[in-house]
Amino acid sequence: MAGAGRDRVPLIVGNWKMFKTSAEGARFISDLADQIGRLDDREVMVAPPFTGLYEAVRAAEGTSVSVAAQDVFWEWEGAYTGEVSSGMLADLGVRGSIIGHSERRSYFGETDEWVAKKVWAGLERGLLPIMCVGETEDEREAGLTEEVLARQVSAGLSSVRAADGGRLAIAYEPVWAIGTGKTATPETAGKAIAHVRREVGETLGDDIAEAVRILYGGSVGPFNIDELMAQPGIDGVLVGGASLQLGSFVRIVQFERP
């Protein structure tokens, strides 16, 4: 399956986490759009904090940049203090949402069941769910990487109809590589992503597995982007710290494949 990667449009996503005010984010997007110009061979998304989404969407209008949220809730409305629904995000003009990031799983108790509900909710309101999966260092050292990925992929996609499978993305983020400076080698990342794609095939069918874009995340930067994107099964990247600096993120967006 991995050989079909050239047919999937690469997706570059910058996850700003809890950084940038709304004004800072809007200015960053305007500067980013000016530097990357019009793009027809790749897609670029940034994910500001909730407080910056409105201004980010306005700044991104008419550019090659689109906006994602960093999380979403699965109910449409109700007494859920602090939560934001997929309909509310769509109403703002947000195009996607990161779901199940390891920081959400580890700090806030996000479960595979919650991830599945959020993926479903995003699809129902036309958002692009970017579902994160990945093993911890302990799990990796115990040889459990494939088992963990199989569980997270099958559970996270359990509410997805096969017909909707092409409208989501998956980000493989080994937890041990997020914000640590450690990066999976391109070959290691490619092997894990190939396993994720096989699990998508087992869950939704091989045709859907060919359509789903699978990204790599974990200490991605200008220094390794070309090598990562040279892997045939890697369809893009989910970038953390390097997406906060204009120069480094522009270089990542402008990756070159051999």
Plain-language structure description:
The protein has helices at 22-36, 53-60, 86-92, 102-108, 112-124, 137-141, 145-156, 186-204, 206-211, 225-229, 246-253; strands at 11-15, 43-47, 65-69, 96-99, 128-133, 169-172, 213-217, 236-239. The chain has a single domain, classed as Alpha-Beta Barrel (TIM Barrel), CATH 3.20.20.70. An eight-stranded parallel beta barrel has the order 1-2-3-4-5-6-7-8, surrounded by six helices. 41% of the residues lie in helices and 15% in strands. The chain is built from eleven helices and eight strands. The longest helix is centred in the C-terminal third of the chain and has 19 residues, at 186-204. The two termini are 20 Å apart. It is globular. The chain is an alpha/beta fold.
